Amino acid sequence: MSRYSELLRRSPHRATIINAILLSLLMLMINDAAVQWLIGVVVLALAGLWILRRALVRTLSAAVAGDSYHLILTWVPGLLAVSLALLGLHLMVTDAGATPNLWLGWILFTVELVMLVVIGADLSPSNKSSFGAGARA
Amino acid sequence: MDFPVFHLDGMGNRWLIALIAILHVLINHGLAVGMMPLVAAMEWYGEKKKDPRWDNLAFQILFVCFLITTTVGALTGVGIWLSVSLVNPYSIGSLIRVFFWAWFTEWLVFITEVCLILAYTLTWKKWSERGGIWKKRHIRLGFALAFFSWVTMAIIVAILGFMMDPGNWLTDHSFWTGVLNPLYLPQLAFRTPLAAAMAGIIAMFLILFFTAKRDAFRNAALRAVGAWTLAFAPFVVVAGWWYYTSVPAAMQGNLGVALATMEFEDWQTKFLQIALFTAVTILVVVQFAISRPHLLPKAALLVPFVAILWMTGHFERVREFIRKPYVIGQYMYANGLRVDDYALLQRDGILKYATYSNPLTGAEKVGLPENLTEAQRSNLLHRIQKGKDVFMDTCSRCHTGQGVNSISGILQKMFGDQEWSTDLTAGTFEFMHYTRPFMPPFPGTKDELVLLGEYLAQLQRSKAVIPGAQSVGITVNPVSAARLAETKRQIKGDAQ
Predict the structure, then answer these.
(1) Partners of residue B287 in chain A, C-beta under 8 Å
(2) Which of B11, B44, B355, B442 has the fewest CB atoms inside 10 Å of its own CB, making it the most exposed?
(3) Residue closest to B331 by CA, chosen among B463, B131, B164
């Protein structure tokens, strides 16, 4: 147990990842397209705004300003994650019942929600690397 | 019908072109048009950051591209035009008349491209060692190579677009209306980012071979190339939509068959779902390569690599099929006959204008009805021979006898084991283009339809393979020989 606590303490966004997966599981259990759509859009809007704010801060910072490569790394992953999460949500709510679309959509939505958390954490002002994973590179 | 008929009865003529052309497109887009700017950008980035690891990686990737593009790439490039000339000399003849100067320019650009890739690869080490202005020159050489690679594609895309929809060229027949056909810019706009994204995915795959597993540079390289790939992805989507909506509605109607086969025509939605799933999988893997490259297993990068090759290859197949029943939109049918010639051919018959005849082989004569007198047998063989000529001149560009997309297989599905009588086959072929809009109308007379039916009835009995002129030769049609001789006399007379 202490090992898991240590894992969460070292990278607090891991707790958010667990919450995002649990929320996604709850959405699957709701089994109501309208509610799923509503919750999904609200969650994505919140995550999108969170990332937008951090991306803006990073874009305006001296380290990234004018560097097109880092600008791409700052903006493209987040935009892609939001787009793919929306696609996943769309697939989830389009077909009623346990169809392949529902499962594929749910998997895509969950993966992209997790990616949004990871990207947000990477864009954190406390993260000094050009991109989060850079610290590990 | 002025050329002997080249025919492959096993794989079919279309597959010969498809195999060569798809392989060439994969190499051209993935390793030349898209990869050269990426390699030059990597070299530039390495120079900017004074990091020799980028330089080494760029050179290793370039060397792979150099080996493949100058061998398989160059051979398949020439191979496309050779195979197309063999299979459908009429369409290539028409295209050369319209695009002579475009092809000539493309040849010059291609030669320049070959010289540049030779210079770029072979001077890399020496100019890098000299450093300074020489390294800058070398980087410029790389971007010049990238530009010329793109120009070759930009010229050829004009011809590919023209074949789908010639647009106003159908009325004014000028070179520039041919080049600037309605599908030129949408197709070029689609292929350019597609090539760049494709190169990114291939480069990510190659990075695994050129960097060590625990090398931190592998992660940095994967992230940078992943960013390159993702930067082009939205343009692929937007330009893809532009291209799709520019395709004439009649061609979009062929999409079901073009995506799969006639048998799986109803799978259109499922197929599009598979394509969407594949595209999303590529994006997710690339996304991981950017965010957490160290967590990405080696095998995972095989997925986008195989997926992008499959998708691009299939896109080419769809593009080739979707323009049916034409080989050049509204101008020439897939059988190589011009739309404008149909009225004449349907009045006089195609055999009257067929210069060559395709002699029946012994295997094709097997199974003739017994209890025929010699005269009846001779007469029947004569009619079957004419029927075979009709088949070779009007059907064999797309259909084989016993192989891929075989006429035997299609008739077997339609009529089963019952006798393929002329009533059944001729009656079907006369109106087939109404029920199957990707089929050209039958170009000959009703008598020729009956002759074709008699040949197909014999094909059911003999189950013989149909050889092409390349293996059994041809005979000159006596009627045409006399006509040709008369034409020659007239030309000589006019010249004097």
Answers:
(1) 77, 80-81, 84, 115
(2) B11
(3) B164
**Nearby residues of B440 by Cβ (< 8 Å), 6 or more positions away:** B325, B326, B333, B334, B335, B337, B433
Q: How far apart are CA A87 and CA A104, in angstroms?
A: 10
Q: What secondary structure, in 3-state letters, does chain B show?
A: CCCCCCCCCCCCHHHHHHHHHHHHHHHHHHHHHCHHHHHHHHHHHHHHHCCHHHHHHHHHHHHHHHHHHHHHHHHHHHHHHHHHHHHCHHHHHHHHHHHHHHHHHHHHHHHHHHHHHHHHHHCHHHHHHHCCHHHHHHHHHHHHHHHHHHHHHHHHHHHHHHHHCCCCHHHHCCHHHHHCCCCHHHHHHHHHHHHHHHHHHHHHHHHHHHCCCCCHHHHHHHHHHHHHHHHHHHHHHHHHHHHHHHCCHHHHCCHHHHHCCHHHHHHHHHHHHHHHHHHHHHHHHHHHHHHCHHHCCHHHHHHHHHHHHHHHHHHHHHHHHHCCCEEECCCEECCCCEHHHHHHHHHHCCHHHCCEECCCCCHHHCCCCCCCCHHHHHHHHHHHHHHHHHHHHHCCCCCECCCCCEHHHHHHHHHCCCCCCHHHHHHHHHHHHHHCCCCCCCCCCHHHHHHHHHHHHHHHHHCCCCCCHHHHCCEECHHHHHHHHHHHHHHHHHHC
Contacts of B292 in chain A (CB under 8 A): 118, 133
Q: Are B253 and B437 in contact (CB under 8 A)?
A: yes
Residue B391's nearest CA partner among B406, B404, B370, B371 is B406
Q: Is any Cβ of chain B less than 8 angstroms from the Cβ of A119?
A: yes
The ranges assigned to domains in chain B are 13-333, 345-495
Nearest by CB to B231, which of A72, A134, A136? A72
The model's pTM: 0.85
Residue the block writes with tokens 């390349």: B470
Which H, E and C letters describe B36-74, residue by residue?
A: HHHHHHHHHHHHHHCCHHHHHHHHHHHHHHHHHHHHHHH
Q: How far apart are CA B69 and CA B62, in angstroms?
A: 10
B109, B152 contact by CB (below 8 A): yes
Q: Is A104–B277 a contact, with Cβ atoms under 8 angstroms apart? A: yes
CA distance A41 to B280: 20
Question: Which of B456, B438, B441 lies closest to B14 in space, CA to CA?
Answer: B438
Tell me how far apart the 2 most distant CA atoms of chain B are, in Å.
91
**B358 CB-contact burial (10 Å; exposed 0-12 / middle 13-18 / buried 19+):** buried
Interface predicted TM-score (ipTM) of this complex, two decimals: 0.76
User: Is 90 exceeded by the pLDDT of residue A99?
Assistant: no
Give the residues of chain B that fall short of pLDDT 50: none
pLDDT tens by residue, B239-292? 988 998 898 888 877 776 666 665 555 556 677 777 788 888 888 888 888 888
What 3-state class would DSSP assign to A66? coil
Provide, as residue numbers in chain B, all residues whose Cβ is less than 8 Å from the Cβ of A136. 216, 219, 294
